[in-house]
Amino acid sequence: MTTDLISLDTAIVVTGLSKRTLWRRISDGALRKAEDGSASAGAGGGRTLLDARDVLPLMRAPLSAAETALLIEADAGDADAQAELGAVFHRIGEMKTAVYWWQLAAAQGHADAMQWLGRCYAAGEGVEQDENLALMWISKAAAAGHAIAAAQMAGLLRGAAGK
Description:
Blueprint: E1 5-7, H1 8-15, H2 19-27, E2 33-35, E3 48-51, H3 52-55, H4 65-75, H5 79-91, H6 95-107, H7 111-123, H8 131-143, H9 147-161
Antiparallel strand pairs: 1-3, 2-3
């Protein structure tokens, strides 16, 4: 039987607990860990992976079984899962966590995540308001073919031309 694992970094994001607190729980045996020996983990000997079943009860917001599967995919680096998980956390009001997942997806060129990040920076949701970053992310999403972002950019350009 394979165990569903998530990284220590993801556990920190979804629980709000510090790395130190999670390591203490690992030492106490409350959290089970396994080492990822994959080459993509870098020269540091791999990343620390935790059994997702141990982490789920510690989360600030409960996830359904489907959302938990999405979390595992997102943690593994799937940009579509990261963007969708950002939407899940947005829906339940965890904006900082939503932004975290959208940033990961946007870094991989995910247009929806870029548009959402632009929206967050424009409104100051989950991040400090920053019009420059909002414009940057929306323009990147538009350049990647995102229809809503393209419409937003066209509106901004029309507004600037009317001044």
